Amino acid sequence: MRFYFLCFFFLYFPLQSAFAAPLSIFVSIFPQKYFVEQIGQSQVRVSVMVGAGQSPATYEPTPQQMAQLNHASLYFRIGVPFERVWMQRLQQNVPQLPVVDLREGIDLHPLPNHQHQEKHGHDKPSRSSLDPHIWLHPLNAIIMAKTIRDQLSHIDPVNQSLYQQRYQHLEKNLLQLHEVLKKQLMPFAKQRFLVFHPSWGYFAKAYGLEQLAIEHEGKSPGARALVQLITQAKQEAIKVIFVQPQFSQQQAQRIADAIAGQVIAIDPLAENYPENLRRAADAFVVALSP
């Protein structure tokens, strides 16, 4: 009898785990979805708040999403602009939902204009004025992946060993990606590139580049600043302006015309993280090559 009981125990509980409903995980943007799915795989079902083609700066959650959050197991936030307004409302509406900040443990950098203020002795920037695009540095992605692994293990300890194995595989791939990009971009160290929206600061720091941003805090430059920027671009022979697909490209195109350059779209919000960073690196190589 004891033998049959043990057989039932060891057969039933793994099957119970295998057929358990996946954890409902919410994230703000698509790159987070990639990281959570790499670690959670069939144990998670990931929903993204900011949909394809939408901007995290102007996004507002839908009533359907707010209702679905009542059944979620976990929310991973990351610091994108819509969270500043909506995260407090979300937690008031769904107080039982655990919210985990993937910025924890990451060295956050100020946006370009706040960096300028610091150099002139002004106050230290608030958390809301820090650059939220942390995921574009692969080593930051590894820190986020650790947090995801730990949180999934906390709410689903039965599958802790699976989450650890998948994290290790993801970490290995991200380290390899970082080394490939570092080698590819090393010949262009200290060179500047021009972007409309300042999305690529962490990527630039990772590979020794410097980002020049046209937009600051969501605002286009004034006439005087625009003239200075065009003059600088001409002096440094910058011929490419990088833009995000989620933003209007009209002003970027006017600036490109003024410097006899071109506009190229690269998407920091694309879901396939490794492929997207490789594509971005290729675009930077083309733009920075003489």
From TrEMBL:
A Pfam family of this chain: ZnuA
Signal peptide start and end residues: 1-20
Molecular-function GO terms, alphabetical: metal ion binding
Gene Ontology terms: biological process: cell adhesion; zinc ion transport
Superkingdom classification of source: Bacteria
UniProt keywords, alphabetically: Ion transport, Signal, Transport, Zinc, Zinc transport
Family label: Belongs to the bacterial solute-binding protein 9 family.
Name of protein: High-affinity zinc uptake system protein ZnuA
Organism of provenance: Candidatus Venteria ishoeyi
